[in-house]
Amino acid sequence: AQSVTQLDSQVPVFEEAPVELRCNYSSSVSVYLFWYVQYPNQGLQLLLKYLSGSTLVKGINGFEAEFNKSQTSFPLRKPSVHISDTAEYFCAVRESSASKIIFGSGTRLSIRP
Amino acid sequence: IAGITQAPTSQILAAGRRMTLRCTQDMRHNAMYWYRQDLGLGLRLIHYSNTAGTTGKGEVPDGYSVSRANTDDFPLTLASAVPSQTSVYFCASSDAASGGPDTQYFGPGTRLTVL
Question: What is the layout of strands, in order, in the sheet containing A56-58?
Fold first, then answer.
């Protein structure tokens, strides 16, 4: 069965510093991977997704993620964060044979000036 | 274009009471979903509907029911609320023409407290 783990519940970083949010998944078949972002008091919105092809995926707001099949990981990165990136970030997975997305527990990114 | 609207924004409810959370979308999306969001657990799927007239159970369906009489509306009902149903509830939709099932559009959420 598919599952996804976000190891960090909170990640504090200084403004303009780089950030990496960890995500690992478990599945015995091929998967599709996603990152969603939830800004304060809002619903989630899709940040980026990996379906096939290039393992480096670029999303909105300067974020990118890299699919690593051997490590079953899909870390989210940004080279320089801004205060406006303060949000909760959810990694999600869907097995190619499944119809439903499974969300991770979320990582709260807090940006310090 | 409003996207997805949810009502109420928040509600405090006595245990044992019946409650319906409303969800309406104006995007004509075929699929709709209800999730609950709890601290440390992320989002868990309660029920879903792939198209009007059909519904299915998600990960945590017990204590909840849904209906999908038309494309736009997808209400979630708690027949007899219990404190463990205290949560933030999100409605979402998706459609093949708008990115498929993996690109879900979320409403602003309903914060429900059951005492």
Answer: A19-21, A76-78, A64-66, A56-58
- In chain A, the DSSP E strands lie at 3-5, 10-14, 19-21, 24-26, 31-38, 44-50, 56-58, 64-66, 76-78, 87-95, 102-103, 107-112
Q: Cis before residue A40, ω within 30 degrees of 0?
A: no
Chain centre distance of CA A14: 19
Mutation site, A96, A97, A101, A105, interface B, largest B CB count within 10 A? A101
Q: What is the mean pLDDT of residues A91-113?
A: 90
CB–CB contacts below 8 A, A to B: 51
| Mean pLDDT computed over A56-78 | 95
Q: Residue B40: closest CA among chain A residues belongs to which residue?
A: A105
Q: Which of A9, A43, A103 sits opposite B40 (nearest CB)?
A: A9
Residue B1 has pLDDT above 70, yes or no: no
- A66 at the B interface (CB within 8 A)? no
